[in-house]
Protein: Phosphatase PAP2 family protein
Amino acid sequence: MAAWDSAWARRLLPPVEEAAEHTKLWWATAVAMAAGGGLRGRRAAAAGIAAMAVAELLSNGVAKKLVERRRPPKEWIPHSDVEDRPDSSSFPSGHTAAAVAFTAAVTPAWPWAGAACAVPTALVAIERVHSGAHYPSDVAVGAAIGLSVAALVRSVPRFAVRHLG
Structure:
């Protein structure tokens, strides 16, 4: 995928990466859901933000410190996007972990919004490999972290109500 030198990909994917940088896309989505979605939107936004924060912590604050993996070699990437890559460990993809966690946490609370979030989430995952920032396995593990965190965020309130209430 990183070797895919498509004009379409070069136009679409860099703006996706820019929007996802520092989770701007997900924060903006949460604000829009909370502002325009009533109680359902506020619940979905809160779940998404909570999951995104925990996924970022686990992927960038823990896993990247435990697994030191170099980014894919620049020679593997035939396009110019390869010059703008982070210096941190490649494993796992924090962008993907945050995107998947947000989307997977939003979906049960508001399925329509979750379906809408799935498109940019998939584009973020594709962009991370296409830009040479990550190996496909980094993205896969980031997605697994995101899914796990979303399940945890969904189960903690129910667990607390049952055992603390």
Q: What stands out?
A: The helical segments are 7-20, 24-36, 38-66, 94-109, 111-130, 136-164. The radius of gyration is 16 Å. The longest helix spans residues 38-66.
